[in-house]
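Field: COMPLEX_INPUT
Field: COMPONENT_COUNT = two
Field: RESIDUE_TOTAL = 581
Field: MODE = joint
Values follow.
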Amino acid sequence: MDIVVCVKRVPMTQEVDLEIDAQHRDVRKDVLAYVINEWDNYAIEEAILLKEKHGGTVTAVTVGAEDDEEVLRRCLAMGADKALRIDPGNITLDPFVVSKVLATAIKGLPLDLVLTGVQADDLNEGAVGVMLAEQLSLPHCAVVTRVEPSEGELTVRVELEGGTDEVSKIRLPALLAIQTGINVPRYVSIMGIRKAAKKELNVVKAEDLGLTQDDLSPRTIIEELFPPPETAGAQLIEGDPATVAEEILKIIKEKGVSL
Amino acid sequence: MADIFVIVEHRQGEAREISFQALWKANDLSEKMNAPVTAIVMGGKEEPFVPEIASRADKVIVIENESLRNFTPDLYLGILQSLIQENRPFITLVGHTPWGMDLGPSLSVRTGYPVATDCVDVLIENDRPKVVRQVYSGKLFQKMSFKESEGYLITLRAGAFPSDRAGQYKGEVIRKDVPAGLPEVRRQFVAFEESSAGAIDITQADLLVSVGRGICEQENVAVVQELADLMGGVLSCSRPVVDKNWLPKFHQVGTSGKSVKPKVYFALGISGAFQHVAGITGAGTIIAVNKDKKAPIFRVAHYGVVDDLFKVVEALKGKLKK
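Field: COMPLEX_OUTPUT
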């Protein structure tokens, strides 16, 4: 099975103070550390597991600048065979434009399956994967937690809400958006990344893909980024751990729990 | 004014809560824009929830066929595409659920209408929609507008709107045949599967001691389990802990796990992603411990401790062992 996996490099925003930039449209990114998007890490692992079991190739693709090659090298170290970076240059990206760029770049590759993450950790849109499927006329599944291949098709588990899942069969070629928890992504060592440096990493420019003005015209426009509206918020319990513990136990008892 | 469409999500003969939330927002927009609300039901023969939907919409278009009883995106998309081309709705609302995540972006590519996903509000400014979304782990909000279009597609976050069940409309129910020339089915529903059955029922506990990403290492699960035992509480967790296989799924609180209603929910190292918070709205009192003072959990908790959770856990153990 030939598998293409789309990945994105995103800033780490947990346990970090975020600063809104001067244009009020995004956060100041120069002060943040970057990682592979968590969902994409599960997607690349799933692709490699499928390859290890059923044969084929894995190609990792990203739309990004040179710094973003870091996540492609990581995918190569995990076991991807090839990588492709599509340099967007000065193009303004939204999910529609990204999906157009990806579709055009991927179209020529041999592929049975395209994997993406369900969403990216930064803007949480969850739209690129399914849009890409449509651009490539592939059947798709937006939240996948299990993949089992059989002749010409896959049996997938789709995560619904409230403790119920759906099992469906999907014909190949297809696109699946992978949910976290589907596997346990393997560890990547610095040594592994160094070893993978010999693997093929191609770069194409989005402007060379022959996209039209309409293809490159974003459908959504970020107008403003702002802090969440004020809420009453939590009443803070302060002091040394012993004092805090005392207070917590008092509250729990007051609320009718016997300890 | 062109219609506001609501795509009704349902499962096993019941309309999902998100459908009523979407209808609430549709009616709110309808008042502002004087546009009729049309609900779209694609389902099996005689789905029992149609009258309930009709009381919250001006019109319900029902397309019934046994092939539509369960979510079948190839057919659903074919039908929606033709309904949109026929009616040209100004706004189409669908939940940001596994259904809507497959339908919204697809319809956008097929119809050329722009889509905004996972929206917590929809505003009308100068006769055009704008949306509000949460970004960067819920720490910031974003206001987004669309490229000008005849129609707009919006997927709504579950729980972002009230689900008004007191419908006052007498929506006309229009039954339509499945349109001719639908595409072949490439993704076929097989079955539903329970995902969080297990040894412990976290929904019955008075006290839940719940761990999140902040516990860092698998070994620390036992550290908190010991505290839960000393307190007479039950151990639960947020999604990352299950994703890492540190606890089985039946411990998970949230939209893809379980909704809980303990007297006290004690959250340790849980940042408070909305999917998690949606599962604890029934908790009497929420006490949260997290290192990050900006963690969204502090927006919903009644009491908060900004500190290393392990210091607090050890101090609690010390007091309880005495």
